[in-house]
């Protein structure tokens, strides 16, 4: 037997009931199928914004029911029917629709496809891998996108929006270690000391970017990492210098983009979309190798809090309300 957070939705006539409970399951409950060929003893999972949406039933994230949520996990292979992994291998999983279509990581056990697993570097613990999670791995993909578009530390300031969140916090820490000048945008001024400790050179209030954008504004940034979308992303684009790049990976403010073509055709700005869910393993491995060297583990620890599996529902509500700072690790065995 093992413990897991299970989401259920049941319809009875016109009534629909939703529940989220920590439940005991048996190995026979784990997903079956020819592609479900690796079983992992999970050490840690995390709670991302998408997990919060699923657990609170705020948005239709879950596609099949019942569902074990959790888009990330890190642990040790306990059974394998695939030559790529052996019992005892340490692995991490991010994305691949787990927690949406396939049972995810908020459980003491998970059974998934070997194609979805990334081997862990010997120097990285499963706790740190979970603390990085999809948020940190996405932040690394954003930084790589800036580099690929020739935005380097000498290019000028980089804006990070939603800076106190999971993606933002990790992006600030990575960019700082790489030598970039980082401008952190946040709606929580009380987090200024926290962001400065992560490496932000300047803190600005998100209100500076959250209103309607002009087609072009005075240039302020060489590039950006945006986890917010909507008017914020439009303003960042309008303030990006010629040949700059903005990596977009989130929609905390909204899914819309009320902008114009002006930044793209008059300044040559690139908007790089970052989809971390179905990234090929070759790119994932590069991102995780970079995380092992370009993210200060002490800073990762400073942005991470830990909760037991029983505390997940409360944290899910907090993350939807914008109350969570940095990263939350779930010790599924606590």
Low-confidence stretches: none
CATH architecture descriptor of the largest domain: Alpha-Beta Complex
Q: Would you identify the CATH H-level superfamily of the largest domain? A: Medium-chain alcohol dehydrogenases, catalytic domain
Cα end-to-end separation:
15 Å
State the shape.
Answer: globular
CATH first level of the largest domain: Alpha Beta
What Rg is obtained from the alpha carbons, in whole angstroms?
20 Å
> How is the biggest beta sheet arranged?
7 strands, mixed
In terms of DSSP E residues, the strand content is: 25-35%
Q: What is the CATH fold-level name of the largest domain?
A: Quinone Oxidoreductase, Chain A, domain 1
Structural class of the secondary elements?
Answer: alpha/beta
Number of domains: 2
* Discrete helix count: 9
Helices and strands, in N-to-C order? Answer: EEEHEEEEHEHEHEEHEHEHHEHE
Mean pLDDT comes to 95
State the helicity in percent bands.
25-40%
Please provide the count of β strands: 15
């Amino acid at each position: 037997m093992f413990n897991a957070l299970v989401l259920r939705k049941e319809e009875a006539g016109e009534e629909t009931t939703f529940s989220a409970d920590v439940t005991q399951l048996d190995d026979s409950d784990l997903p079956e199928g020819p592609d479900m060929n690796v079983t992992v003893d999970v050490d840690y999972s995390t709670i991302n914004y998408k997990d919060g949406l699923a657990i609170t039933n705020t948005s239709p994230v879950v596609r099949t029911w019942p569902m074990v949520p959790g888009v990330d996990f890190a642990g040790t292979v306990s059974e394998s029917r695939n030559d790529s992994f052996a019992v005892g291998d340490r692995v991490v999983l991010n994305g691949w629709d787990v927690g949406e279509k396939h049972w995810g990581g908020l459980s003491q056990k998970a059974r998934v496809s070997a194609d979805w697993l990334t081997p862990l570097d010997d120097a990285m613990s499963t706790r740190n891998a979970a603390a990085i999670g999809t948020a940190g791995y996405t932040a690394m993909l954003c930084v790589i996108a800036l580099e690929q578009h020739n935005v380097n530390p000498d290019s000028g300031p980089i804006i990070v929006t939603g800076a106190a969140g999971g993606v933002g916090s990790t992006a600030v820490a990575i960019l700082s270690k790489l030598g970039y000048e980082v401008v952190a945008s946040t709606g929580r001024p009380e987090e200024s000391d926290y962001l400065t400790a992560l490496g932000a050179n300047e803190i600005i209030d998100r209100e500076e970017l959250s209103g309607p954008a002009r087609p072009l504004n005075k240039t302020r940034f060489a590039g950006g990492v945006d986890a917010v979308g909507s008017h914020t992303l439009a303003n960042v684009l309008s303030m990006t210098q010629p040949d700059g790049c903005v990596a977009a990976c989130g929609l905390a403010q909204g899914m819309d983009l009320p902008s114009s073509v002006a930044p793209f055709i008059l300044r040559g700005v690139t908007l790089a979309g970052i989809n971390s869910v179905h990234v090929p393993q070759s790119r994932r491995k590069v991102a995780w190798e970079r995380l092992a060297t370009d993210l200060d583990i002490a800073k990762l620890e400073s942005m991470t809090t830990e909760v037991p599996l029983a505390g997940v529902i409360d944290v899910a509500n907090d993350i939807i309300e914008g109350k969570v700072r940095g990263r939350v690790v779930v010790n599924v065995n606590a």
